[in-house]
Specification:
mainly beta, two-stranded antiparallel sheet, 1 helix, globular
């Protein structure tokens, strides 16, 4: 089997600190707070700059990895 690095086959991003993106020209956006192994996601709405790069928005088909214990990996099945 050929070994490859994850960034060779996928776009990899870490989450953005919301506080860094609530400066001006904002609107209420959903912000993921916690993910669960049964594909459940807890989120809140916060004011975030509309200029935030689209790469930080979760989309259908994305894979979320929770880095803090417990480590959880889920696939986003809906928008």
């Amino acid at each position: 089997m050929e070994k490859m690095k994850l960034d060779e086959i996928a776009d990899v991003f870490t989450g953005a600190r919301v506080e860094r993106f609530n400066l001006n020209n904002t609107k209420n956006q959903p912000v993921i707070r916690k993910i669960y192994p049964n594909n459940q996601i807890d989120y809140d709405y916060e004011k975030i700059s509309i200029e935030l790069n689209d790469k930080f928005y979760t989309r259908k088909g994305d894979i979320l990895i929770q880095l803090r214990e417990p480590n959880i990996i889920i696939r986003v099945n809906q928008e």
